[in-house]
Design goal:
By secondary structure, the protein is α/β, with parallel strands linked by helices. The chain has helices spanning 10-21, 33-40, 51-60, 97-109, 126-135, 157-162, 174-183, 185-189, 199-230, 234-242, 263-276, 282-306, 332-342, 355-361, 371-375, 395-401, 416-421, and strands at 2-6, 25-29, 64-67, 79-82, 114-118, 143-147, 167-170, 194-197, 313-317, 346-350, 366-367, 380-383, 406-409, 425-427. It is 44% helix and 14% strand. Strands 3-2-1-4-5-6 form a 6-stranded parallel beta sheet, sandwiched between helices. It starts with a strand and ends in a 5-residue tail after the last strand. The structure holds nicotinamide-adenine-dinucleotide.
């Protein structure tokens, strides 16, 4: 089966490479010439564990190729995936211009019967809008528009795509449904659960899932505030809650607030959809507001620990919005870095993968090569991303290079007693 994936970012590149791994003939098309040139040279433009190997293997096998000729990549494909960005507009709604640009190119190059699949996270009702655009030029029985939202997580995107917990296909056209079943047969043969539903339900499943996960994170962050007041330990509270299978242990990690390219934008976008339909989503509203508070609380905590931040040097561990990615979109770590710089601090930052992206956003940062270089001469340290390599720091070495002994751990990576016994003024999230 020939497939084109339009948009070769985190989702498009992983989708294209993994579909090729499952034996499909895949063309990845993107308007970003620099990105495509890198890929043609065998370089992977993003940090994503395991991706390079899958890309190389499938390029060599002749099942995967890259092009900037988006129009030319379309006529041959039985299925065209749209995996372009849907970033937030200032009012919180999704900016759909990349999706509709791609749809217009598809419309001009459509041949025979083809299936257009939205992999991008799109507002409920987008499939119907795409259908209406295509119907202006083409008979309705010549195409179908399917929703197939993506649930991969950056940092484990390849294994998430290869072994998903579920595949959701929303489709109102039986011929397209058969094609989608054929496309995902390798996964269904491995007993991956597939939910076949109508298109609008599939569109909503993605937003509802992200809104729920964001709410779970905000919930535990709010509990951490209460823990700080009553002397409880949020890690034990989360563990105790998570032992209840109705709740489950995941997404109960307190921290500086959720970030990334999905939760902040998708929660705001579902609120925009709810407003259009005059339905109040009070819980999601509260999750969004609670998350904004959490970043501010993290800053307050840093301020309290350092006293005055103006003129101070802060060693910052982590810039990515979470570990195992170079993605800094809506990263709480970056928001903290930016606020510290604005307040007149010197920020010496280290991140295993995201420093290059972060410096482009915040040229005032001093990028360092490891945690100890970041700590050199600093008045204290802030840990903002939960990279594994931060969990086993050499504390005596750290103490030696730091000027001050403040350590604000926004990810609860360390044992409070051990840190205090090591002589640090240690603050974490929701722990006595
Ligand atoms: P991204 O910004 O990494 O990639 C988008 C790509 O689309 C870019 O390379 C851009 O150049 C390209 N593009 C834009 N307009 C184009 C056009 N007209 N033709 C061809 N290419 C075009 O974005 P991403 O993180 O991969 O996200 C893509 C979509 O998937 C979004 O809707 C996002 O919400 C959703 N999603 C993302 C994740 C994630 O973890 N990143 C997970 C699930 C779903």
């Amino acid at each position: 089966m020939k497939v084109t994936v339009v948009g070769t970012g985190y989702v498009g590149l992983v989708t294209g490479a993994c579909l090729a791994h499952f034996g499909l003939d895949v063309t990845c098309a993107d308007v970003d010439g620099a990105k495509i040139q890198k890929l043609i040279k065998g370089l992977i433009p993003i940090y994503e564990p395991g991706l390079e190997e899958v890309v190389h293997r499938n390029v060599h096998a002749g099942r995967l190729r890259f092009t900037t000729d988006v129009a030319g990549s379309m006529p041959d494909a039985e299925v065209v995936f749209l995996a372009v960005g849907t970033p937030p507009l200032p009012d919180g709604s999704a900016d759909m211009r990349y999706v509709f640009d791609a749809v217009r190119v598809f419309s001009e190059n459509h041949e025979g019967y083809q299936v257009v699949v939205t992999k991008s996270t799109v507002p409920v009702g987008t499939g119907a809008k795409i259908e209406a655009i295509l119907a202006e030029r083409h008979p309705r029985d010549g195409f179908a528009v399917v929703s197939n939202p993506e649930f991969l997580r950056e940092g484990s995107a390849v294994s998430d795509f290869m072994n998903p917990e579920r595949i959701v296909v929303g489709c109102d056209d039986s011929r397209a449904m058969e094609i989608m079943k054929r496309l995902y047969k390798p996964q269904t043969d491995q007993n991956v659960r597939v939910l076949l539903t109508n298109r609008v339900s599939a569109e909503l499943i993605k937003y509802a899932s992200n809104a729920f996960l964001a709410t779970k994170i905000t919930f535990i962050n709010e509990m951490s505030r209460l823990c700080e007041e009553v002397g409880a330990d949020v890690m034990d509270v989360a563990r105790g809650m998570g032992m209840d299978s109705r709740i489950g242990p995941r997404f109960l990690n307190p921290g500086p607030g959720y970030g990334g390219s999905c939760f902040p934008k998708d929660t705001r976008a579902i609120l925009d959809v709810s407003r259009q339909h005059k339905v109040a989503l009070r819980i999601v509203e509260a999750a969004v507001a609670g998350n904004e508070d959490q970043v501010q609380r993290s800053l307050n905590k840093i301020q309290k620990a350092f006293g005055e931040v103006k003129g101070r040097t802060v060693a910052l561990l982590g810039l990515a919005f979470k570990s195992d990615t170079d993605d800094i979109r809506e990263s709480p770590a970056l928001k903290i870095a930016s606020a510290l710089l604005d307040a007149g601090a010197v920020v010496r930052a280290y991140d295993p993968a995201a420093a290059e992206n972060a410096i482009k956003e915040l040229p005032g940062l001093t990028a360092c090569n490891d945690p100890y270089e970041a700590a050199q001469g600093a008045d204290g340290m802030v840990v903002a991303t939960e990279w594994n390599e931060f969990k086993k720091l050499d504390l005596p070495r750290l103490k030696k290079v730091l000027k001050g002994q403040v350590l604000v751990d926004l990810r609860n990576l360390y044992d409070p007693r051990e840190m205090r016994e090591s002589g640090f003024t240690y603050l974490s999230v929701g722990r006595p």
